[in-house]
Amino acid sequence: MLVGLTLLLGFIVIAYRAYEPYTFLHEDGTFYANINKAIARDGSIEQTQYHPRSWLVEDLGWNRNLDQGWSNVSLGRDGRWMPKHSFVLPLFSTPLFVVFGYDGLLWFHMLALVVGLMAAFEVARTYLSDGVAALATMAVAAQPVVSGDVYSYNNDVFYSALLLVGVVAQLRQRPWLAGLVYGLAVWAKATNVLFIAPVGLALLWGQPWSTWRRMAMAFAVPMSLFLAANTWFYGAPWVTSYSRILMRKDGQLATESIRERFKEPFKTHVKTVLEDEREGVIPRAPLLALGLVGAGVLAVRRRRSLGLGAAFWVATATFVALHGKYHYVYARFFLPVVLLSVLPLGGLLDALSRLRPFREREGWTTAGAWSLGGLVVVLALLWARTHRPPSAGWRASDHVEDAVVSRDSKRCDYFNNQRQKWECPGDGPHDFFWGASLGKQCTFDGQPRSMLWLHPTPGTREKRMRFEGLPAGTATVTLGLDDTSRERDVTLELGLVDGPRWPIEGALGPNERKTVVLSPEESGLTEPGKALEIVVRGSPVHWRHLCVEVEVLP
């Protein structure tokens, strides 16, 4: 328990220091979050409403050819856009997403990482002393591939935790649980069979036939669901989302299988896989090499772990062989063998230092009590930093995802989860994206505020943001140009669709705000269900950061 609390406490500190709202949704995290949204809101995984169609079906100048790296959707059998990535992770994390919003995904990710490491610790302490197992676990956790991936949300941590839980289940003689989590891990990523085959078979060797049968039957449950889902969504059990990835080729929409990305020349690409400064296995997981040495030492000193040590060697070699041919490579793809390396690394430490097993103590220790107290304090700090108290009424900035944003009468089709803003075809720098203010955006008198970020576009273009279903009540409008603005004036219209426009008068200068309070009769919000529209028109100069907030109180 103390090991798990220490890991969780350390991960919370890492996340707390790095935390800025939504920034942990980098790389594919924002698209996994789109699957969470579809499940929570629509009861479906369909991505037609969440992935930007303009990227793939319109000629935007920059998108004549887009490979698989630009696409996060696949073509379903009925023409619907389905997620390219596995939806198993979002299925499990959506409950936390529903309760805690996007921050729940970060919590799920950290908890999954702790579960994976704790499972690795349990594997190691099966053969080694608790002290050696704990030391090896902390050493593995300190590597960049683990500690550097805390502030994230990705599938690799999730399925790695499943795989290690499966190993523990086998060691504890629970074949039903082992088969079930192994099947889920393969559903989450099919190439995990390269881990399960050597490791699972090594632990099954010598077991009675009934154990093999139970594990196979449990494994068949998620596998049957996997094949059924493929048939339902893509037309055949053997056709997966990675078989029909949407992309653009010569300006036309096309599909491609992920197999087309396993054609790199092995001799040259494997060096990149191992040595790349940013994502190479050696820089990101340097102790993996020592684990390979430790597997041999462990096999000589402890014969009962010979099979698992050999399986670790085979799994690591097959992972290198697989990714040596794959175009897109990240060190986190090796996380299953990195976590399993806790055992051979511990065996090497045990051989070198000849540490004796620590005595186990019953009940709470002083260190355990301090760890739990520190955990509670850090949890409270992280909660206070990531959550603001709810407004008593309706606030526009709380409903950014529900807004309809258009540019020159053309609807913007991509909500960027990481930036909490809508991107429109033809937008320039990120400053032109419309949505919620994050970080230091909308700073007045040195104080960042939660508002809408409505950057005027240059030229004569206009942007509109519409909110549906406003409640009845008194409307309070606050707007201004923040501290970083260099120009005066904006052309702003604000009011109800098919209703009165709200009076916003007078020029605004940098770091100037104004507030207008409108009664229900003045605003037109005498009954619920009205639609609010904000219109901002462009101008020859654009270094003006317009911030607006609309709050309706009953």
Give a structural overview.
The chain is of the alpha+beta class and 554 residues long. It contains 19 helices and 19 strands. Strands 5, 8, 9, 10, 13, 15, 17 and 19 form an 8-stranded antiparallel sheet that branches. The chain has a 5-stranded antiparallel sheet with strand order 7-6-14-18-16, with no helix packed on it. The longest helix is centred in the first third of the chain and has 26 residues. The radius of gyration is 27 Å and the shape is elongated. It starts with a helix and ends with a strand.
Write the layout of secondary structure elements.
Elements: H1 2-18, H2 29-42, H3 54-57, E1 73-75, E2 81-83, H4 88-100, H5 102-127, H6 130-141, H7 144-147, H8 155-171, H9 175-188, H10 193-204, H11 209-234, E3 245-249, E4 252-256, H12 266-275, H13 281-284, H14 287-301, H15 306-323, H16 335-340, H17 342-353, H18 366-386, E5 394-395, E6 404-407, E7 410-411, E8 414-416, E9 421-423, E10 434-436, E11 443-444, E12 447-448, E13 452-453, E14 462-470, E15 474-481, E16 491-496, E17 512-518, H19 520-523, E18 530-537, E19 546-553
Antiparallel strand pairs: 1-2, 3-4, 5-19, 6-7, 6-14, 8-9, 9-10, 10-13, 11-12, 13-19, 14-18, 15-17, 15-19, 16-18
Helix pairs in contact: 1-5, 1-18, 2-4, 4-5, 5-6, 5-8, 5-17, 6-17, 8-9, 8-10, 9-11, 10-15, 14-15, 14-17
Beta content comes to 15-25%
Uncertain residue ranges? 355-370
Gyration radius over CA: 27 Å
**What is the molecular shape?**
elongated
Cα separation of the termini: 49 Å
Mean of all residue-level pLDDT scores: 86
What's the total helix number? 19
Main sheet properties: 8 strands, antiparallel
Tell me roughly what share of residues is in helical segments: 40-55%
Q: Kindly name the structural category.
A: alpha+beta
